[in-house]
Automatic annotation (TrEMBL):
The keyword NAD does not apply. Pfam families: MFS_1. This is Putative inorganic phosphate cotransporter. It comes from Amphibalanus amphitrite. It is a multi-pass membrane protein. InterPro entries: MFS, MFS_Na/Anion_cotransporter, MFS_trans_sf. PANTHER family: FI19708P1-RELATED, SOLUTE CARRIER FAMILY 17. It is found in: Membrane. Keywords: Membrane, Symport, Transmembrane, Transmembrane helix, Transport. Its main location: membrane. GO terms for molecular function: symporter activity. The chain crosses the membrane at residues 47-68, 187-205, 211-231, 238-261, 281-299. GO terms for biological process: monoatomic anion transport. The keyword Membrane applies.
Amino acid sequence: MPCVDRRRVSSRKQLCRVSPGKQLGTAVTILSAGPLAGWRWAGGWQAIFYVTGSVTLVWSVAWTLLVYETPADHPRISFRERVYIYSLTYQGSGQRSSVPFPWRRALSCRPFQALIVTQFCQNWGDYLIMTELPTYISTALRYPLNTNAMFSALPQLAKVVFALGVSFVADWLARGSRLSLSANRKLWNSIGMYIPALTLVGVSFAGCSDVLVLTLMVTTVGFNGAVLSGYNINHMDLAPNFAGTLMGITNCVATLAGVLAPFQAGYVLNQQPSLANWRTVFLTAAGLLALGNTVFCALGSTSRQPWNEPTPERCLVLDADAEVKRRARQQAVL
C-alpha cells in the first residue's frame, strides 16, 4: 500500500481495501484448524495454537525489522522516494505528531460518542458469529468437524469479497460528488448493519433448515463487510490528526463486546442449548446491530472536528518545550 496522507480520500479508500485482511485471516485459521488438530505428533489440538502463535511471532519480527517511525528513519529508502513521501504526507505545520491528544474535547464530542456506540454494537454481532457460529453448526445443525470448518469460514470469505467490492463502489460515488461524504458513510453502514440485523432475525426463526440457515449466515457476514466503508473509517473524517488514537479508544471499548457477547451466549445456552435459546442470542445481536446503526445515522458526522487542529496556545507550549530540549542537548554536548 503506498504511503499516502491519511487525511486524503485515497488513504481512506486504501484502508477499506486493507481492512478485510482480518476476515481473510479468520477464514484461513478456521479452515486450517481441522487439519492442524489432526497432527498427533504436535499434540493434536495444541498444534493450532503452536502454529498460529509461531506465525504471529514471525510477523512481529518482520514488523520490527521492516517498519520505521518516519521515512527519515528508514535505512533502505532512496533519497528520491523519501522526498516524494514527505511531499505527500508532511504538508502543513508539522506539529500534529507532537500535539497532545485533547481528551476532554474528544470524549465530549457527540459524533465520537456515537462512533463508540456504533463500533461496540457492530463488534457484538461480529464476535458473536465468529465465536458461536461453529458451535451452532455443530450442535443445532449436526454437521461434522470438517464440514463445520468449511461452513464457518465461508461467511468470512464472503465478507472479504463484499467489502472489497463495496470499497470500489463507495469510491466511485465519492468521486464527482455523486453522493456527499456523510451520505456515503451512512449508506454503507446501514447496509452493513441493518441487513445483517434482518438476516439474523431470519436465522433465529429458520429452525434446523441447514440450507436456509447457512445462506442467511453468509448473507449476514457478507453484507456486514460494508461497514468497512462506513463507521470504520469515520475516525479519519472526524480528526485525521488523531485518527490512530480515536481508533484505539473505540477499539478498546468495542473489544468489551468480544467478552460480553460470548459470555451472554454461554449464559443463555448453558441453561439449555435449544433453538429457543439460540433465538434469544441471535435476536440480541440483531437488536444491537440495528441500535448501533441508528445511533450512527442520527448522531454521526463526517465533519472535521475543531479539536483536530492545534490551537495557538498549544503550539506555543510545544515550541517552548522544543526550545528547552534543544538547549539541553546543546549544553550536554558542551
